[in-house]
Amino acid sequence: MQATTQQLVDGISAWMHCESPSNNPASIARMVEMMRAQAAAAGLRATVIETQAEGKQGLGPVLPVLHITNRAEGDTREGLLILGHSDTVHPIGMLADNPIRIEGDRLYGPGGYDMKAGIYLALTAMSAVATPGSTPLPVDLLVVPDEETGSHASRKHIEAFARNARYCLVAEPARANGGRCVTARKGTGMLRLGVKGLASHAGVAHDKGRSAIREMAHQILALEAMTDYQRGVTVSVGTIEGGTTTNTVPAFCKCVVDFRLPDLQAADELVGKMRALRPVGEGLTLDIDVEVNRPPMVKDARAEALLAKAQQSAREAGFALEEAPPTGGGSDANFTSAMGVPSLDGLGADGDGAHTVYEHILVSTLEMRARFWLHLLRHLD
User: Fold this and answer.
1) Mean pLDDT across the stretch 142-154?
2) DSSP-derived pairing of the beta strands 58-59 and 54-55
3) Given CB 3.0 to 4.6 Å as the disulfide criterion, which of 200, 204, 345, 356 pairs with 209?
4) Rounded to two decimals, what is the model's pTM?
């Protein structure tokens, strides 16, 4: 039976009441348990997989990845992969600033648009086809706990499921002002640059010092100059820290740099330039740590064909699904697309205000979006 608007509103609202910021594993675990219980009650198989990120600082916190499927036990056929994330950018307490409420056509609340409503719509559709064999392709919904912080702990799980996927649908929010889907995203990367200089008294022995901040100023100008708008390459120095006291020539400085890339060739070229940075001044050293953490999501002919099928499902559901221009923001679709899996993103709820205190979804679109998801699951083959 098709869910009503009120049922969808009630379900999404309940999920929004469970705040799940990226930096709070306990609250994410509670959110995942709500999703798991709802899936199990619908007759879907639901499993929690524990994961941890591995980095220079050691192992990160244990986080829950949720796998929901309508596969029969032992069914290893190539399937349809749906991706979502249980974490949000909002801290605990955001419900006070953006309380759950309906004003006109808008259902407000933190994390609803990005992206609890999208997962709820996909899970609602899966609940209607929970019996193994009721869809042409077995369906796997993977809900990861750390997308907002880069999916460092989840990437290996996303890629493992993608190896057995014919298509990937991502329940990230539809683009505002039209509910458009996403077929191309820039790749994302990060540079951590450190400068080591030589401390000295700023008044008595200024000439003996080697200023790390002065050196970093040269490096920042060089980095920002790597931006190439015509190619779609952007480099942004986001944070900087250095020095100890005002009367000491600073011996250290560090910055963190965000960069966005349209394709793998641009990624290779930019990373090469960053690794080739050298000190401008004498007696200073650079510590360069650079990585592309999400490869570009590039639209190809297979993604174009998947888009056409999704647009047909949207027409059957009562709306026109349009394509958004390529976006600079990354998502987990970047990983699946780079593996050659035809991927569509931005298929979640229609609304606006992601990451803000006015985040909301459009109530009048919920039933159509739910019908869209169900049609997709029943017809993709």
Assistant:
1) 95
2) antiparallel
3) 200
4) 0.91
